[in-house]
Amino acid sequence: MSHVLVTGGCGFVGSHVVDRLIELGHPVRVLDSLLPAAHAGTPSYLNPSANYVFGDVADAEAVAACLDGVEAVCHQAAMVGLGLDIGDIAEYVRHNDLGTAVLLRELARAPAVSRLVLASSMVVYGEGRYRCAEHGLVSPGPRSQEQLTEGAFEPLCPDCGRSLRPEPIPESAPLDPRNVYAATKVHQEHLCAAFGRECGVPVTALRYHNVYGPRMPRDTPYAGVASIFRSALAAGRAPRVFEDGGQLRDFVHVQDVAEANVLALTARPAVAGAFNVASGEPRTVLELAGALSAAFAGTPPLEVTGEFRLGDVRHVFASPRLAAERLGFEARSSFAEGVREFAAAELR
Fold first, then answer.
1. Could you tell me if 303 and 258 are in contact, meaning their C-beta atoms sit under 8 angstroms apart?
2. Per DSSP, what are the bridge partners of residue 118?
3. Among 16, 11, 15, 26, which Cα is nearest to 333's?
4. Which of 38, 135, 205, 271 shows its CA 20 to 30 Å from the CA of 299?
5. Adjacent-strand bridge partners of 275
6. What phi and psi values does residue 183 have, to the nearest 5 degrees?
7. What DSSP designation does 93 have?
């Protein structure tokens, strides 16, 4: 069994990866800084069979100490979400890009490490994949503030101005980050790819779509939309749905995401490349809000606000075909069952 280091292993996805690895018999070490934006303290759910080091992935000494005997690294540590505004930029770059760079430098000095799995994100694509009836596949530019203020949320064909049809996005699509967090995730992928080429270590980048499930952080601007809706409902408030709620996303359960990581860490031989981690069943944001609301008795009606954030994209959902073919990954959790479980789950 491979000895695995999981950075960010106290977090939402990372802790589920740790649990699954230990269940399969792998020795696991965790490096986590317990970032206050995500943790109010040491979580109660930490698996006692893992070895925990509470330190920063940007601290070279802490990283080097964690790599003793490690054969594979699962890099989950990151500052996630869109955040509040451009004032977050330095913190995102420090935690995501500098932290990754320090980790990679230390990995290059640790010859026992034979593979690296990176937690990437669907945000690297920017807007999803669109087809125009006349011009075929097109890439609409960012939506303007004027357009959004007028409630014109759907991207239009940049050639003829007509409406577009969204399609599942494959891993071969161009990368087009539309916010600071997305830019840092693209940079993480590029840094890891450079490390892999120079050091001969297979690197697997898992592009998570909208992950939800137990242990999500509550009431924070860095949480995902599922957690924000869930926190509102738990407080007796209606979820506030931005735009018109028609945004298409792929909501994938955290246990499926953990399984994708385990497959990438244990595949023989290692499978390098970027892979969508998704259910393959797109849903609107309004559908998610409605499904969660239905699980809470006596909540007020959903509030569709028309508000928007310039960093948001309209539609992005994935083709999971490549992950199925190369990694053997298929999401198992149904949307209905997963949302019911999430509605009753304890948040962090």
1. no
2. 75, 205
3. 16
4. 38
5. 206
6. -60, -40
7. I
Please name every residue paired with 72 in a beta bridge, in sequence order, or none if there are none: 4, 115
User: Which one has a higher pLDDT value, 148 or 220?
Assistant: 148
For the stretch 223-226, contacts whose Cβ atoms lie closer than 8 Å and that sit 24 or more positions apart, written own/partner, are: 223/81, 224/80, 224/81, 225/249, 225/285, 225/288, 226/251, 226/288, 226/292, 226/342
Question: Exposed (0-12), middle (13-18) or buried (19+): which is 134, by Cβ within 10 Å?
Answer: exposed
State the Cα–Cα distance between residues 68 and 28, nearest whole angstrom. Answer: 12
DSSP three-state, residue 42 = coil
- From the list 256, 111, 215, the residue with the least C-alpha distance to 223 is 215
Structure tokens at 298: 């006596």
Helices (H) and strands (E) counted in the chain, each on its own, are: 11, 16
SS3 string, 151-195, reads CCCCCECCCCCCECEEECECCCCCCCCCCHHHHHHHHHHHHHHHH
Please say whether the beta carbons of 292 and 239 come within 8 A: yes
Q: pLDDT category, 84, cuts 50, 70, 90?
A: low
Share of the chain above pLDDT 70, in %: 97
Residues in the chain, overall count = 348
The overall pTM is greater than 0.85: yes
